[in-house]
Amino acid sequence: MKLHSLNVSKTILSKQTFSSKNARLRYLSTSALPRPFRFHVGASWAGKQPDTQQRRVKTLPFPKDSEIGAWRDQTLSRPKASSSGRHIGEDFFYVQDMRKQSGVSLGIADGVGGWVDAGVDPSLFSQALMYHAHRYAKVSWPGEPETDPNLDYEEREQVDGWELTPQECMELAHGQVLREHFVKAGSSTACIVNLNAANGILRSANLGDSGFCIIRSSNVIYNQAPQTHFFNCPKQLTKLPSTGFTRGLHDTAQDADLYETNVVDGDIIVLYTDGFSDNVFPSETAAICSLISRQFTPPPAPKELDADAEDPPEEDAQVQVMADRLVDYAQMCMVNKKRVSPFERAAAREGLFYRGGKMDDVTVVVALVCETQ
């Protein structure tokens, strides 16, 4: 088999323009019913070092006093112990409680670096996409209405928010980026996961080569397969410049892979960009999370938990340590040219030669499922 050297910059190519239909919104009523699930979330990230041989893009970040700039800085102020600092590169993410704390929505995005050649900063698209996705998640429900049967019919029918699936959230957020004046062009992968606190249902939408996995009893029971047009060219949400540019992919949220399952107590959900999955095997992810879990004392029995109390810090610390250690391990693998990486194996399957880890931005979000009843 003939081997070819590999350029690891992600690719953007042309495709027919899509016609995006409006997302379906179902208006729901509010409820104060108990929710037996609670989710503890940690996040960590590390931007790759700038390539001195790569073109530098002279664009401005979102101003600190703008809505997106202020939200970006607040998101990056989350406590983390990883030694990578606050630089996140072209990745971004969000963690958002949904309406009336009915669940939590998690999102992760990776700006496609190929736009640098066109003078476009890829980070602006991914930041704007996650900002608008978190806005929609904040005011929506993760599933069916939590209707209190003791209420009158008229009270149950009162409009109070809407149910929004991850796919709908992705589509609406993309639409807002297309109208965002500060983002002139760009594209990004996207993965959105909603966790329902009332019934433990996980729903997801994934477009591109970011993704997530579910770990149960030290085993990976689900691992999101990447979506690509061809090797190292992921499916991606795109915004083209208004003039002078005819190349670029036009994938939509309707092209996303959808998944739904029930989570149980102790499940660990790990969202990641491809800077992680290109360097760390799923079995290694499960091993690291399991090792850290054993270092923490078990939580109190469900009957001992107070539903009105603040989240126990033990679980919060546990998921943050998991996120930090996963990012640290991915960074170690990136610079190791003697270790076979998932990216090297994927390249070999395409008849391409690549050795060791792949340098990239890496972002990880970890959620731990706890049943309180």
UniProtKB/TrEMBL annotation:
Cofactor: Mg(2+); Mn(2+)
EC identifiers of the protein: 3.1.3.16
PPM-type phosphatase domain residues: 67-369
Top-level lineage group: Eukaryota
Presence of keyword Cell membrane: no
Reactions the enzyme catalyzes: O-phospho-L-threonyl-[protein] + H2O = L-threonyl-[protein] + phosphate; O-phospho-L-seryl-[protein] + H2O = L-seryl-[protein] + phosphate
Enzyme class: hydrolase
Keyword tags: Hydrolase, Magnesium, Manganese, Metal-binding, Protein phosphatase
InterPro entries: PPM-type-like_dom_sf, PPM-type_phosphatase-like_dom, PPTC7
Family under the similarity heading: Belongs to the PP2C family.
Protein name: Protein phosphatase
